From TrEMBL:
The keyword Signal does not apply. CDD domains: WHTH_GntR (cd07377). Residues 14-81 form the HTH gntR-type domain. Keywords: DNA-binding, Transcription, Transcription regulation. This is DNA-binding transcriptional regulator, GntR family.
């Protein structure tokens, strides 16, 4: 982090704590904040131009995600990123998202399918513009539309939970060359399978997509030397 701080840009509906978490997680995953770095609430508040309350909330969430380690009587520190833990979570998420896509193929009505197609089309414009920042938000919208389309609240909540724990890694993958274009193609295949009502194919394609995301996230971390090459 620079000593001058930054001005937080809140996404639509995002809280200050959410924005602080997003910025900190990006700096941890990119290696700008190295393992063992102490995270002082007061200094972070000054850096981001917010009070200590959203900083405290962000650090708490980052600890749950495994990016921050809280040490009794000593405070919060940047945790060592565990490639094994990250890959384990992605494997689990691939299964959950595959289930969501399969159920969505069976249960989505014409209106929900049309909305999913609209979201997919919007992503293509972002790829053409090479707008990686906007594509990250689009990617979340796309996947959450499928979680909702699955028509199973318990499955949706479980998938959202594991997704939050790897959100920083999923966001980072889009900094790899050609990744947003490849992601758009992978999404398109899933949309076609859902539109056809082919649950088996939708499950397979979504699972394959998430495992590709896992490989891209791992490649990014190795490129940034956050995990060993």
């Amino acid at each position: 982090m620079t000593e001058h701080g930054i001005r937080l840009q809140l996404a639509s509906g995002e809280t200050s704590a959410g924005a602080v978490m997003r910025e900190l997680s990006a700096q941890i995953v990119s290696g700008k904040l190295p393992p063992g770095k102490k995270l002082e609430e007061a200094l972070l508040g000054e850096y981001f131009g917010v009070s200590r309350t959203p900083v405290r909330e962000a650090l708490r969430e980052l600890a749950v995600a495994g990016l921050v380690e809280t040490r009794p009587h000593r405070g919060a520190f940047v945790a060592e990123v565990s490639a094994e833990k990250m890959l384990e979570k992605f494997e689990f998420m691939a299964e959950l998202e595959g289930l969501c896509a399969g159920y969505a193929a069976r249960r989505m009505g014409a209106g929900a399918k049309a909305r999913l197609a609209e979201i997919q089309d919007a992503g293509l414009a972002l790829v053409r513009q090479r707008d990686r920042v906007a594509y990250r938000a689009h990617n979340t919208l796309f996947h959450e539309a499928i979680y909702e389309g699955a028509g199973n609240d318990s499955l949706r909540d479980a998938t959202l939970g594991i997704r939050r724990s790897v959100a920083a890694f999923r966001a980072a993958q889009f900094d790899l060359k050609e990744r947003i274009g490849n992601s758009q193609v992978e999404h398109g295949l899933v949309v076609v399978a859902i539109d056809r009502g082919d649950a088996e194919q939708a499950t397979l394609l979504m699972r394959r997509h998430i495992l590709t995301v896992m490989e891209a996230a791992e490649a990014y971390l190795r490129e940034k030397r956050v995990i060993p090459i």
